[in-house]
Amino acid sequence: MNASATFPLNKISKPLLSWFRARARSLPWRDDPRPYFVWVSEIMLQQTRVAAVMPYFSRFISALPDVAALAAVDDDALMKLWEGLGYYSRARNLKKAAQRIMEKHGGTVPRDFDALLALPGVGRYTAGAVASIAYGERVPAVDGNVLRVVARLTASRDDILKDSTKRAVENALAEIMPKDAGQFNQAMMDGLALPRPRRRN
Question: Which CATH class is domain 9-25+139-193?
């Protein structure tokens, strides 16, 4: 996807950030974006709607407030906390990742994209989301919503299910990533709420 061919993506940063700052939803992991909270929320939000995640997130954090607690939790207790969210491999990978964080990162969720990507259950989108939202790293976080938004803006017909398209969008967004990368990525994640641009005849 040559994302800049039909629409200069660098023009979206200011209006998108203005829109987000005026209308961003209040979410516990957004209001308090500590790395552990952002990471747990992003794993929960995989395949699950925000409204469904909210009560589970609060209960999970109350029971397991930090990486050390998650790494040490009994498997049955972990599954009980996750019960109802589905896709239970996410919970198992969370615990495995927490144990690795304790062993290799001193109990601190890493800020480096590649270090995050090496954790169980963490893909490129999640690594980008945690690095940018929790640490302000200027890296993109490209999920299905972001791919659709960019395709809409650029009038692209490229297949967004292809890895090559995803990488092209990541590269295009990395080139125009503003200083407030975390807010920019969150605004892009919420971007399907933006009005559709009018097509030129």
Answer: mainly alpha
Residue with tokens 């050390």: 68
Q: Are 195 and 148 in contact (CB under 8 A)?
A: no
The tokens for 169 are 């969008």
User: Six-digit token pair at 31?
Assistant: 């209001």
Q: Which amino acid is at 84?
A: G
Handedness of CA 171, 173, 179, 182 (dihedral sign): negative
Q: How far is CA 31 from the centre of its chain?
A: 15
Give the pLDDT band of residue 13 (cuts 50, 70, 90): confident
Q: Please list the active-site residues.
A: 42
Instruction: Determine the 3-state secondary structure of 196 from DSSP.
Output: coil
Summarised one tens digit per residue, pLDDT across range 72-99 is 999 999 999 999 999 999 999 999 999 9
| The model scores a pTM over 0.85 | yes
- Residue range(s) occupied by CATH 1.10.340.30 in the chain: 28-135
Long-range contacts of 109-116 (CB under 8 A, 24+ apart): 109/35, 109/36, 109/39, 109/67, 109/134, 111/35, 111/135, 111/137, 112/137, 113/137, 113/139
Q: Where in the chain is CATH 1.10.1670.10?
A: 9-25+139-193
* Architecture of the domain delimited by 28-135: Orthogonal Bundle (1.10)
Q: What is the pLDDT of residue 154?
A: 82
- Helix ranges (H only) for 24-87 are 28-31, 35-45, 50-63, 67-72, 75-82
